[in-house]
Structures are given as C-alpha cells and as structure tokens.
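Can't attach files on this board, so I'm pasting raw text. These are the components:
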Amino acid sequence: MATASNAGTTAPPSAPKGRGRRGTRASGDDRERAILETAERLLEERPLAEISVDDLAKGAGISRPTFYFYFPSKDAVVLTIIDRLVADAAEGREEILTTLAENGPRAGLRKSLENLYAAFRSRPGVVRAGSDLRPTNEEARDLWGAVMESWVADVTAVIEFERSRGAAPAGPPAREMAIALVQMNERAQYATLLGEAPSLDRDRVLDVLIDIWLRAIYGTPEPG
Amino acid sequence: MATASNAGTTAPPSAPKGRGRRGTRASGDDRERAILETAERLLEERPLAEISVDDLAKGAGISRPTFYFYFPSKDAVVLTIIDRLVADAAEGREEILTTLAENGPRAGLRKSLENLYAAFRSRPGVVRAGSDLRPTNEEARDLWGAVMESWVADVTAVIEFERSRGAAPAGPPAREMAIALVQMNERAQYATLLGEAPSLDRDRVLDVLIDIWLRAIYGTPEPG
DNA sequence: GAACTCTATCAACACTGTGTTGAGAAGGTC
DNA sequence: GACCTTCTCAACACAGTGTTGATAGAGTTC
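---
Top answer:
Structure tokens for the assembled complex are below.
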C-alpha cells in the first residue's frame, strides 16, 4: 500500500516518465530488462559503489551512451529495482490486525514479520544498494521513508487497538512507540542480513525482536 | 573504552602512522589542523559527497597535491574527525552500572544515555559523514562496529546484573537483548538527529527509548 | 658557507567515471 | 521514396582522484 511506484511488473502501458525509459513503448524492452537483470545480478556480487554504468551497459550487451537511452543514471536503475522489491514485499503482506486476531499476539506478530521480511531476505544485495543510495539520493530516502511510514501506521493501529480492548496497558503515545520499534527492526534486520559487527544470528533475530515488541506493547512476553 | 584511536586531542607525540600525516613531527601542524577544521566546518554545511579534496585544500589554504602530503585521502580526514568525536563521547561516559545504582533504573538510564549522546548531538554533520562513509569504507564500518560493541557489552552487563539481583525477570540472552536495544537507539537517534521521514521529536526520543528499554529489561516502565 | 638533509609545496600528468552531442542505421507508414 | 520514430554508438567535455618530479626553504654538520 501507500508509496509511489511507476514500475508495473515488467511492461507498463502508460506514461513511464520519471525513472524508466524516456521514449514511449517499443521493442527495446529487452534491453531495458537486460539492464535491470544485470544490475540485480551484479548487486548480489558486489556493492553498488563498485558497479559502473559501463558494467551495466556491458552486461546488457550495449554501449554506455545507449544505456542512457534507457535510464537517466545508475541510481535510476537501482530505484526501479527497489520499487519492485518494495512492491513484492507489500504484495505478500496481509492485514496485520487480522493476523494478530487469528493467531494471538506472539504467533501473529511472528507471522506478520516473517511475511514482511521474506522478500528482503532473498535479495540482500538489493537491500544493501537501497541503503547505500540513501546518503546521496533524495528519491531513495523518500521511498524508504514512505515504506517505513506505512509500517509505522500499521503498528500504531495495532497498539491502539490492543490498548482499547484492554489487552495492552497504557504507555507512551502509540505512534511514538511504533516508530521506535519499527526503527529497531529495520536496523537489526539490516545488520543481520549483512552480517555486521555486532548483530543477531539469522535464526534468532525475529525471536529477540518479537520478545521486545511484546514486552514493550503488552508488558509481558506472553500476553493473552 | 575499548576501541582503537590514533588521535590524541591535537598533537600526539608518538608515531602518527596509519591515518595522520606521513612524515614525523614538524611545524606544518597548522596545515593539518586547518584541514581538519575546514572539514568539520564544511560537514555541518553539506554532506560528505558534496565536499571534494579540492574544497578541503582550498579551505586550508593549500593546493590539492599538498593536501595529500598531510592525509592519504578525504576519507582519512573524516575518520580522524570521527575518531576524536568517539573519544570525546567515551570521555564523558561514566560507569553505567554505578550511575544506575545511584539513580535507580529510569533516572540512571536517562542520565547515562543523555551523557552518551551529548557529544554526537553537537555535531550532526560529523555523525552523518560517519554514517555516509560506512557503505564504502571498511575502516569506518569497523570503527563504528567497535563503538557499538562496547555499548553492547556495557548493556549486557547491566541486564545480567539486574537479573542476578532479582530486579529484572529472565528473558532472552542478555547479549541478544542488548544488541537489539542498542541498535534501536542508534537508528532512532540518528533519524531524529537528521530529521528523517518518520522519526521521533528531539525532545521525545529519550523518553520513548527509555520506556521501551525499561519494559524490555524489567517488564515494567517503573521498576523498583 | 658549502654540502647535505629533511619538510613542505605545487604544476603537470595519468586515470576513472559520468553524462552529452551529433551523426547515422533500421524499421514502419503513407 | 520521403518521412517520422526508435535505437545505437564514436567522440567529446567534465569533474574528481591520486601521482610524479622538480624545487624552495629551513636546519644541521663540519
């Protein structure tokens, strides 16, 4: 939900202005796809900073100037890929409030988060590229900000609902708590995904995060 | 504590190998200081990516090749600055276990964290530069990893102590919880410092973070 | 005070990467 | 066959990094 996206799955029929190819529809769709595929492949091999426009062009079997016919910059390619990844993640997402009601707090949260992170876990290189892009690219910042915002909104709703039905005690404003918890998840998941210095083991992250969420929201690790 | 650092406060007498100037001691100390000061100033004005070696050289009143006499690269300048910032932050830090014992959990935590973040809050540009550097610079990653690690170690000790004296209930391994909590703080503080998309207000961050810490560690926002 | 040494300085160069220009080829249409 | 439109790339112009080599000056040393 939320979030902009000018990227259908592969061939959008309407106006592809902004990031995509600059002309209109045509057969060179293959080239465009080749560039995107090359980028995805290379990103799982090495960081964005070590991939040049020339690498992408070569990988797609075209010259560098021709690359610029399809994309205005290297960043645009990565943003397109991230757009799609985010769309994939959003697609696999279910109504968290429903999941929680059906499975109870602990199992429900677990299911929701597992679901949410599934798409990201399968393409760490793309996630890293998105993160690397933020310092220099405002569009990347905005895109990720919108993603975070939609999660925060969901979590805020959950906290408010649980409080209203008496399952969770009062505490700091729900939105503030939601922001901090979502930020913790982002940071922890990212660190684990990339195997950073101090980080949680891949098979422990979720358990630990969920425990903290439950204690923070319900005051106990085993609510209801 | 912990953490490497080849930077005294201004003029280290011993071997300055690694980052600093490459020769030995001499009067060109002024130049070196001028470069560092220029970098600190410019970093509060614009992001690292928009500052060139030439900008630093010009700001210090020297030519670009001369810059390379003092520092091997732009990154080295920033790393030196960060080294010092981290040292400043470590200096103002008190034994957290003591602070907690003297002030009680809530007030003690607050005091410790306020103390810890004071140095960072005064130089957001430097913090941002450090963060921007991580994707491309391993030394920056390692440096920050070491800082995180020392905080994690402290927090782990606190959690274990509180559990051992019966003030905190059992839960996930102390170190795992400490990692997640420290990561949350890092992310939340950074987002607030830079005014990111969804982030907590400057005057609310600590309250919210502390509340989550207390609930996560003690099971209640107002422990004994 | 000439020979020597070490710090400090920079013009000129070599290189890597980005993005642009302008001239076409290849195909479809009327 | 004149005429768009898509697509392609050699050649260029730039911005930035890091290196070379020559040299100025200050400080010993004898």
